[in-house]
Amino acid sequence: MGPLSGDEGLAVRDLAKSHPERVFVNGSAAAQDITLRDQAPNFYRFSPDGAQWMTGVGSYAFKEKGYKRVATLAEDYSYPYTLVGGFMAEFCHVGGRVPKKLWVPLGTKDYSSVISSLPKDIDAIYVALGGADALTFLKQYKQFGGKAPLIGGSSTVDQRVLDSKGDIVEHLVGTISGVPIADDNPSEGWQAFVKAYRAKFPDAYKFPSGTLHS
User: What is the pTM of this model?
Assistant: First the structure.
């Protein structure tokens, strides 16, 4: 079983093809191509892909927030491709436009050229960056005086980013996004799961991952 990264999921799918006598189960890798295209008949997924997580976000951005033109910024590999594609499919279907798509390598340290190349006539920026990349961009976007509201890819608004210290994440206030489940979901079932998780793994991450438990 496994893994988590989209590119790793693609590698495991290809490995499965060379071992047809074995069953492989995807962990929570959310790249769409793992099972949508060039499938391995013995590789299964039981969790959504990143495009499915974006269901409703494009329509809400256009119809409720009034965003008509949105630029995208994402890491340059399979999982963010899926997130951006899922957002764009719906956003553009209802009438939105994406004048520019920007892709950056994992671990990018300097976003100055990216920020300066963002169109001036956009209503928002769709950001699909995770972990340290998200924090680095948010810090530099604030330093550059960025004012456009953000739409978050699933990893951009996960608890690793939201729990960061300082005021970097203030720009995420009001950000819309799509994730498997919010870490502070008040439902009784989720809270019971969180309680059991913390009792079982007291030294682990503060919140169970919505992607890994699903």
Answer: 0.84
